[in-house]
Design goal:
CATH architecture: Alpha-Beta Barrel
Largest sheet: 8 strands, parallel
Number of strands: 13
Strand order of the largest sheet: 10-9-8-7-6-5-4-11
Structural class: alpha/beta
Strand content: 5-15%
Number of domains: 1
Order of helices and strands: HEEEEHEHHHHEHEHEHHEHEHEEEH
CATH topology: TIM Barrel
């Protein structure tokens, strides 16, 4: 196991200051009333008001490292589409490679034009640049990638929407698989030092935008099929994610930090139940447990002992897809789906979130077992999704997720906004039926799903204090 400890610095005074501010919030009249903090299972703003995130994912971690869709519509139009649905939160994905290139370029970001030519080739890159400039005249050949992201942040702030920075991947490609070299710490393309450096860069960058109140650590950690000697277990996971969270918190103590789990982020159970990291159960049996675990001192993931935990900045995040391990075996069983959600991490919300179909079993293989958590934290559903068509509302998985999140006021962000990608898995102008928009981003792919499913769902969630 490799840990990068360069960011583990003594920031107790800063943490204590933030904790005091959380205990006695200073009333702020300027939206979004930050910084945010956690209180039990809720996220609160500086006015001590609970805030529920509801939104979508806006991919920007593909080969060009530029948010998708701006070649088809203006930034303002795209944000207005999200505002119409009712979103107050957008999870923006980025690649660490973007920051690596900035350092390789003597601290200067790459222009949009250069990024497009590199990713798409001269003909398609030139054509795409012309399309972007036509729909967004403020983006010229000299505009950089992060300047575009700033334009988006400013427009989202103008329309009352929060920007969440999500480190999706290290090498900019379509995510995610076991064999993409980005799966696990120290994988072929997952350089831990560069990961920490990228976090610091983006956490500093976020200080320029008041609507950025949160930031993630990593998307969908998973076992590597490329470097099979890496230790895939809870101990390695906690050592690395806690170091990364301390690194971000030391850089920008105002940010909430979302923590993702194992097996494509469906499992955080060892953390929430405070199980011994050396022997804790796991949804997938392919775990590298220490051979002598029974003779070793027990180890635990104790968020309450970290600087970011003491400052009330830790938030959990979980994904749930039909093809995910566990869920793929229970697609028409809503009780099992919701029990799995609870067992794998939403038990951190407390006993009130315990689904009706749960049993008292402690057997991890029982699909209805719902062990209680030993800590309380806000937990978000930051990825789920399906084809955006008239049948979306009838998919059992989606109905169960809506029911579970509405009852428990769980923040969520579906995958995704993008009806097309300028390049994905080697295919130029790749259309995606799971995207909220049409391939040309000029309308919703399924207006029926937006008007009859997402908008009523959001109204039922009772979002707080983010409407301008």
């Amino acid at each position: 196991m490799k840990l990068n400890l360069l960011a583990l610095l003594p920031f107790a005074a800063a943490a204590a200051q933030v904790a005091r501010a959380a205990a006695t919030p200073i009333r702020r009249d300027d939206w979004p009333h930050g910084p945010f903090y956690t209180s039990g299972n809720q996220i609160k703003n500086a006015n001590n008001e609970s805030v529920i995130f509801v939104g979508t994912n806006w991919p920007g971690s593909g080969e060009s490292m530029i948010p998708e869709g701006i070649e088809w519509r203006s930034i303002a139009d795209i944000v207005s589409m999200m505002k119409y649905v009712g979103y107050n939160f957008v999870r923006h994905t980025y690649a660490i490679q973007m920051i690596d290139q900035i350092y390789e370029n003597s601290g200067t970001d790459i222009t949009v034009q250069s990024a497009l030519l590199y990713a798409l080739g001269e003909e398609n890159g030139t054509k795409t640049m012309e399309m972007i400039n036509k729909n967004n005249p403020q983006i010229t050949n000299s505009t950089t990638r992060l300047e575009v992201l700033s334009m988006i942040a400013e427009e989202e702030a103008k329309q009352g929407i929060l920007m969440h920075l999500d480190n999706h991947i290290s090498r900019a490609i379509w995510c995610c698989s076991h064999d993409d070299g980005n799966a696990w710490f120290d994988d072929m393309d997952f350089n831990i030092s560069n990961w920490h450096r990228g976090h610091r860069y983006m956490a500093n960058w976020a200080k320029n935008h008041t609507n950025i109140v949160s930031m993630s650590l990593r998307n969908e950690l998973r076992k590597s099929a490329v470097k099979q000697n890496l230790e895939y277990n809870w101990k390695t996971w906690w050592g690395n994610v806690s170091a990364a969270a301390e690194n971000i918190h030391a850089t920008n103590p105002d940010l909430l930090i979302t923590i993702s789990g194992l097996d494509y982020d469906i499992d955080l159970s060892a953390l929430t139940t405070q199980a011994n990291l050396l022997t804790a159960p796991y949804v997938n049996t392919d775990m590298d447990y220490p051979a002598d675990a029974s003779s070793l001192p027990e180890e635990y993931a104790k968020i309450e002992e970290t600087s970011f935990g003491k400052a009330k900045k830790a938030v959990l995040e979980i994904h749930a897809y039909k093809q995910s391990t566990y869920y793929e075996d229970h697609l028409e069983d809503c009780d099992a789906i919701q029990a799995g959600l609870y067992r794998f991490g939403f038990n951190a919300l407390g006993e009130s979130a315990r689904p009706e179909g749960c049993t008292n079993s402690t057997n991890f293989s029982d699909p209805y077992a719902c062990p209680p958590a030993k800590l309380t934290l806000p937990t978000l559903l930051t990825e789920f999704g399906d084809a955006q068509d008239a049948g979306f509302a009838n998919v059992t998985m989606q109905k169960c997720l809506r029911d579970f999140t509405t009852k428990n006021k769980i923040g969520w962000a579906h995958w995704s906004l993008a009806g097309s990608y300028r390049i994905r898995q080697g295919l130029m102008f790749n259309n995606d039926t799971w995207g909220l928009t049409t391939p040309t981003w000029d309308a919703f792919q399924s207006p029926e799903t937006v008007d009859d499913y997402f908008r009523p769902w959001i109204r039922d969630m009772g979002t707080t204090n983010l409407e301008l």
